[in-house]
Backbone:
């Protein structure tokens, strides 16, 4: 726990000491969201679709955090030479990742709230939250599943250099498309194959559940399948992350790639 | 500087850029990588459009084609901005070679032009793949009529538009290079700010007339608006489209951007040399 706390502290301190980064993390998502909201406006879609975009954009902040500040973090650590320090220290790799996850969660939550509020106010999106605790339950389950997935991806970055970097890049737009970040994947125009693929991503269930509870005014009676799916994802992904991390670390040691820079 | 030296510098920079961009993967993986992201981007806006249209009961193929072309050709802006913004950071801080390039007989500016041209080359590959796969998915897979006669493309207008647009976006890239050389750790956000603003106000996926009036003024001042208008005209031949006026605006905004890029980059290089920023180290 001490190791996790230490990494959490560094993450919070590091992410908040650059005011221009803070500003960018608040402004850039709003710019992107705005384009999609205007696209819905162009086709005269009902106002709740703007709400779908804003919730999707808010949750994307967490996905980006998982990808770049957690999964890819081992790539940065390797390039800066601090990965060796982690590996020789008497601490668990999972504790390091837990610290990163918690620190990243705190930082991202603050930014996500700001983006969400700005989006709701700018575009006057109607909210209909009848069961706030259900909304929070789905939110926390989604975060748990996403960070577990991030821990699993982190193992890849222990070994690979630019390949992993490009993989992280590759997991942005395709995941946004498949998870229905800006539109409901349950719509009739979304092909069955896309819906099938989207069900492999925990974010899909999280987004669907939060939208139903926060925008459409539904409750636990309608979103319990989302709760079960997200719980299953977390229970599967966490032990997998541990196994993947151990496997990749051993492989990296055998092949001498843990400290290899400029790959 | 002799023309031969300039051309050699550009050629070597294009070759280097190609190697840096591609040698992490085998050609098939690389091709998939350059296909997946832009196609996924197109699918996102395409499905937003379709989901929203189905709710209202009307799917307008004209509006769909507007966003299809706009989003596909926006690849040039993203790729040039990304290449030119990241290159100073990578060459100076990551690979620590900027000082050597600066000292070499070929000018740094021509090296940057070469790297940007490599970005243009990659963007062109992405564009062709995206147009092909996008048409296959939306027109043949989902039955959305895309009224583009690819064989009837006005190649003269398209070539001129691409030439002017690419020079203009490289001008923007030089502004970003200048900012990057004087700062550190802002390369990611710079790309996202610039491409985000151009995406929102440049008439990429929705008509600028949807924007509030102040947003329409911004849209009218951006070269990307005229670039995409001209690209759409070269493919769709819309009646009543004022080619000459759009071409004039594109040319004027291109000249203004290139001049600004030149001035900003020159000032930045002067300050960088004075303040010892050319070999500045960051976290690596």
Residues:
């Amino acid at each position: 726990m001490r190791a996790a706390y230490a990494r959490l502290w560094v993450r919070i301190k590091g992410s908040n000491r650059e005011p221009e980064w803070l500003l960018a993390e608040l402004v850039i998502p709003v710019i992107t969201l705005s384009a999609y909201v205007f696209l819905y406006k162009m086709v005269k879609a009902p106002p709740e679709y703007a709400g779908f975009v804003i919730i999707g954009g808010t949750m994307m902040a967490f996905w980006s955090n998982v990808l770049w500040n957690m999964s890819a973090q081992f790539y940065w650590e390797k390039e800066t030479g601090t990965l060796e320090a982690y590996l020789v220290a008497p601490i668990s790799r999972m504790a390091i990742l837990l610290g990163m996850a918690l620190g990243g969660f705190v930082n991202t939550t603050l930014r996500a709230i700001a983006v969400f509020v700005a989006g709701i106010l700018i575009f006057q999106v109607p909210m209909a939250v009848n069961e706030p605790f259900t909304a929070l339950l789905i939110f926390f389950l989604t975060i748990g599943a996403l960070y577990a997935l991030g821990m699993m991806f982190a193992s890849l970055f222990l070994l690979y250099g630019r390949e992993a970097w490009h993989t992280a890049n590759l997991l942005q737009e395709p995941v946004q498309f498949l998870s229905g970040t800006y539109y409901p994947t349950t719509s009739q125009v979304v092909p069955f194959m896309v819906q099938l693929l989207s069900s492999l991503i925990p974010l899909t269930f999280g987004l669907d559940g939060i939208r139903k509870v926060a925008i459409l005014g539904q409750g636990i009676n309608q979103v319990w399948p989302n709760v079960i799916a997200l719980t299953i994802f977390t229970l599967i992904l966490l032990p997998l992350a541990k196994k993947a991390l151990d496997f990749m670390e051993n492989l990296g040691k055998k092949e001498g790639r843990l400290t290899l820079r400029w790959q | 500087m002799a023309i031969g030296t300039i051309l050699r510098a550009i050629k070597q920079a294009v070759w280097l850029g190609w190697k840096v961009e591609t040698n992490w993967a085998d050609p098939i993986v690389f091709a998939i990588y350059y296909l997946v992201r832009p196609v996924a981007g197109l699918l996102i806006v395409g499905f937003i459009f379709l989901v929203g249209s189905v709710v209202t009961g009307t799917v307008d193929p004209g509006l769909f084609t507007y966003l299809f072309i706009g989003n596909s050709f926006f690849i040039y802006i993203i790729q040039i901005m990304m290449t030119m913004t990241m290159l100073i950071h990578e060459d100076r801080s990551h690979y620590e070679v900027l000082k050597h390039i600066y000292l070499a007989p070929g000018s740094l500016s021509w090296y940057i032009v070469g790297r940007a041209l490599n970005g243009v080359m990659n963007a062109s590959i992405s564009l062709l793949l995206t147009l092909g796969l996008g048409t296959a998915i939306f027109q043949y897979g989902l039955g959305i009529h895309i009224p583009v006669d690819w064989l009837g493309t006005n190649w003269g207008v398209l070539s001129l538009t691409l030439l002017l647009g690419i020079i203009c976006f490289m001008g923007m890239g030089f502004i970003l290079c200048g900012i990057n050389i004087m700062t550190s750790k802002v390369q990611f956000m710079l790309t996202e700010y610039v491409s985000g603003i151009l995406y929102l106000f440049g008439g990429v996926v929705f008509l600028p007339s949807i924007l509030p009036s102040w947003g329409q003024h911004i849209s009218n001042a951006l070269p990307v608006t005229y670039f995409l208008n001209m690209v759409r005209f070269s493919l769709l031949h819309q009646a009543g489209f004022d080619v000459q006026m759009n071409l004039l605006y594109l040319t004027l905004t291109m000249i203004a951007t290139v001049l600004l890029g030149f001035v900003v980059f020159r000032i930045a290089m002067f300050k960088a040399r004075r303040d010892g920023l050319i070999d500045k180290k960051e976290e690596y």
